[in-house]
Amino acid sequence: MDPNNRGPEEYGHDNDGQAPRSRPPRDALTADLGQHSPALARTVQLVSGDFLLTVNPVDGSEIEVCPPGERPQRPTKFSAAERAELARAALPPVPPGPARPRLPLLERQEERERLVRLLARGRSVRLTGPAGSGRTSLLDAVADDCADLAPDGVVRLSGYRRTATDLLYDLFAAVHHAPLYRPERDELLEFVHGIGAVVVLDDVEIGGTALDELLDATPECAFVIAATPDVPAPSTDSLLEEIFLSGLDRSGGLELLERTVGRVLTEDEANWAGDLWFESEGLPLRFMQAGALLRQRDQLQAKETAFDDFGVFQDAPVDLPVDAPFEAADGHDVPLPSLAEGAAPAALLASRLSGSARATLRFAIALGGEVPHQTHLPALVDDTHADAALAELADCALVSPVGSRYRLAAGVQAQLEAAGYAGGVEEQARAAAQHYTWWAGHPSVTPERVCAEADAVLAALTVLVPLTAPPADEQDESVAVQLARTAAPAFAAGLNWNAWERALHFGAEASGLTGEVGEQAYFHHELGILALCGGELDRARAELEAAIGLRGALADKRGTVAGRRALALVADRSGAVLPGGRTAAGEEVPDARHEESASPPGGVPAAFVLSAPAGEPSTLVTNRVEPGPASKRVGVGSRLVTGTRRNLVAAGAGALLVAVLGTVVTLGATSNNNTDNPSEKVGVNPSASQGSQDGSLGADKAKKGSGDDGDAAVVTAPTDPGPDGTYGTSDDPTPPTSTSRQPSDSPSGTKGGGGGGTSTSPSTSPSKTPSKTPTKTPSQTPSKTPTQTPSDTPSGTPTPTSTPTPTTTPTTTDTASGPASSVPASTTASAPQSSSASVPASGGADGSPGGSVI
Fold first, then answer.
1. How many Cα atoms are found within 13 Å in the side-chain-facing hemisphere of 738?
2. How confident is the model at residue 685 (pLDDT cuts 50, 70, 90)?
3. Does 472 have pLDDT greater than 80?
């Protein structure tokens, strides 16, 4: 195609009259810059004992009793092939570059054979030696020799910053296949009790009773435990065999140095190595670092002699051996290191490394000796080839393997800090924290990978948390809080709960320093969940209550719901009865439009409250003073003065009742002018009288009891017992009674329409009552109530009782609204056997009060 003419030019397409076809558009090379939907939070469900735990990084983890269908199957043991694969995965990563030959184990054959013999007999051994004495290399050799001794093979564990409980869980996970399952303490002991393996435990930090606990829980395992002399010793009654690992002798040190350098030492180098042996007490680590110094010296001499002005491609002298060292006669000799540099060679070795390796050392110093994984080094150092720095550090013996990762070798950190490598620790730790925050929160990173970097993450938090301060801008967020917030859920999902707890403590401290209440509530909630899973109920309650209080201040409804559910589970497990037989706080529905409370979908476990046994109501025993034949009735005024406070309450209630009912009657009388209104035809005689031929007044007839037993008649209650606030009705309590005045023991009512106004009361009380009456109603009760002393019986003063209203309530009143009828007897001996309180009927022509008992 002609570059100046974009159309077709040959093959007969010049004049075909068709327009050239346009190419389809290519896909956009850049990502769509529009707004994307946020990634879903990564939630993980796992089983811990009897609990189903949902790790929610947004609102906080949710916990509930595991349903029967969610219980995992019983864990099974790995096969031999699976154990071998897991063992290879647990090894530290191989540094990039050409593999260096494995050095032989010198002067350790006797200790090696003794360890194998003891392990074959099922005995456990504690191997003690100083840092750098070659304990790890000896354990590797012993593990190879004991591969077929136990049915469950050889299990390699790291005791660095691990407790006895952590080691038991690590042993369980190394032998059993139990994904997303963390057994409780009793189940864990049952599982590890059946493990028969040779356990190689390096860098242990426990001793005494903690070590005894580990050994007692695994009676079928034989342990070989490597520790430094500063670790607590086992208990005196322990059955551990003790083997102490010393340094190499002079000949062994020289042989190791020659194997490290890869050539025969010169006389000066041999003399220098002898002085180094005396200074380092024969530690193999010092000879490996000294060999690295000699290799660097050879490389420096080769650079100076290989390229000169005229001898770039000149052949080497044929009379010199191939492995001959560089002599001083050529004028390009590099002097041997001094004895002090040989004893502390870290600074000199680091000065001859690449820039990426030195930057890696600075990060390791900032992280407390933890070397980041080689895959993180390019991002941290900002060099695409920085992963090769790990190989440089390993060749110089500046790092040593610890479990599945690398740390600075013994004494290296102190030497580098003295050389000035400790400058800018805060900046290095902050950069590492920012990187790990982004990396741990990435959806493609699994919780297991985050757990593998747990020590580096926690080391960054250790440096940054004490330096945390409130942000100057509200938009700024603390790096330490972000890292703890991101890494903690991953540690929980990866079942590294020791790291989970430490991250939560760091996060709670950092959020408290910055004043981030929401983040502080999250960390307290997670600490409560962790304590609940561990059986620490008091601690769980304290942490959850603190989290609920903080989230309540922020109106965080969803977080409060999760906290209240967990707190209800704590109350259920502890067996504590909360006030009112309910949980501490009702659970709010997240999707509700109003502030309402409801139970969770699975139900909130409520505390059990004993209910009162069903049966007859208990009888209230009162002290009733029987009046003598010549006893003088006490006036109302004196009773109110000498009575208790309930008399005043009763009097006030009665006055209020009279006022209310008087108002109702007045309004009813004046409401209309209908002459046929029955309410206007009521006379001054007693409220309602029953004529000789009138059998009903419009109310339900009371069932009459037998005259022999004196049972009270049962009256059918109307639909509405009366307005609210009316004492004596079924929906309102009965006011207390006075202890001085006695009401009649039987229902009474007025008879006839004459002006006599004398009311009669039965002289005997009912013989059958709902409950046993401890005292008998006196038989000397006058049958005639006095009518000539209206001052002693004021119409507006009720005489309530001091007992609660019985379940059977009267249904009729002695007012114009219905006939006077009998009511059932009260369930208490002191309760009045009268109708409900109402307006007393006016007296007859003689001015008597009418005899109605209020």
1. 23
2. very low
3. no
The number of CA neighbours under 13 Å toward the Cβ of 664 is 14
Asked if 845 contacts 755 with a C-beta cutoff of 8 angstroms, the reply is yes
229 to 127, 232, 249, 658: CA distances (angstroms): 10, 8, 20, 95
Determine contact, residues 73/47, Cβ cutoff 8 Å. no
Q: Under a CB-based contact definition with an 8 Å cutoff, are residues 275 and 248 in contact?
A: no
Q: For position 103, what pLDDT does the model report?
A: 86
Contact 652, 832 (CB under 8 A): no
Q: Nearest 10 degrees: CA dihedral of 805, 806, 809, 813? A: -50
pLDDT for 693 equals 46
The answer to whether the beta carbons of residues 849 and 785 sit under 8 Å apart is no
pLDDT at 304: 54
Please, what is the angle between helix 209-217 and helix 164-175, to 10°?
20
- Cα 707 from chain centre: 71
Q: What integer pLDDT is reported at residue 671 of this predicted model?
A: 55
Q: Would you say how long the chain is, in residues?
A: 854
- Percentage helix, strand, coil for the chain under 3-state DSSP, each rounded to 5: 40, 5, 55
Model confidence at 611: pLDDT above 90: no
Q: Phi/psi at 361 (nearest 5 deg)? A: -65, -35
The whole-number pLDDT of residue 656 equals 83
Domain ranges of the chain: 76-244, 250-343, 361-392+420-581, 635-660+704-749+791-843
Please give the class, per CATH, of domain 76-244: alpha beta
Q: Are 76-244 and 361-392+420-581 the same fold in CATH?
A: no
CA dist., res. 255 & res. 719, Å (int):
110
Report residue 410 as tokens. Answer: 């013994």
| Residue 659, C-beta contacts closer than 8 angstroms, at least 6 positions apart | none
Check residue 839 and give its pLDDT.
37
Q: What is the average pLDDT score of the chain?
A: 74
* 361-392+420-581 CATH choice from 3.40.50, 1.25.40, 1.10.510, 3.30.70: 1.25.40
What is the C-alpha to C-alpha distance for residues 256 and 270, in angstroms, rounded to an integer?
A: 12
C-alpha distances (whole Å) from 825 to each of 662, 734, 765 are 29, 15, 9
- Nearest-CA neighbor of 622 among 747, 744, 773, 734? 773
The pLDDT score that the predictor gives to residue 673 is 53
Residue 247 phi/psi, 5° resolution?
-80, 175
Q: Is 648 exposed, middle or buried (0-12, 13-18, 19+ CB in 10 A)?
A: exposed
Cβ atoms of residues 279 and 253 within 8 Å: no
In angstroms, rounded to a whole number, what is the distance separating the alpha carbons of residues 169 and 471? Answer: 40
pLDDT at 389: 95
- Residue 408 in contact with residue 364, Cβ under 8 Å? yes
> Shortest CA distance to 261 belongs to which of 396, 99, 408?
396
277-305 confidence digits (pLDDT tens): 999 999 999 999 999 999 999 988 886 55
* CA gap 303, 166 in Å, rounded: 51
Report the DSSP pairing between strands 44-48 and 51-55: antiparallel
Q: What is the spatial distance between Cα 508 and Cα 517, in angstroms, rounded to a whole number?
A: 10
Three-class secondary structure of residue 225 per DSSP: strand
Each as own residue / partner, the long-range contacts of residues 60-63 (CB below 8 Å, 24 or more positions apart, any chain) are 60/522, 60/525, 60/526, 60/529, 60/547, 60/559, 60/562, 60/563, 61/489, 61/492, 61/525, 61/526, 61/529, 61/562, 62/562, 62/565, 62/566, 63/529, 63/532, 63/533, 63/565, 63/566, 63/569
pLDDT > 90? residue 318: no
Q: Go through 125-153 and write b for each residue having 16 or more CB atoms within 10 A of its CB, e for each that does not.
A: bbbbbbebbbbebbbbbbbebbeebbebb
Q: Which residue has the higher pLDDT, 581 or 376?
A: 376
Give the alpha-carbon dihedral of 319, 323, 328, 334, to 10 degrees: 150
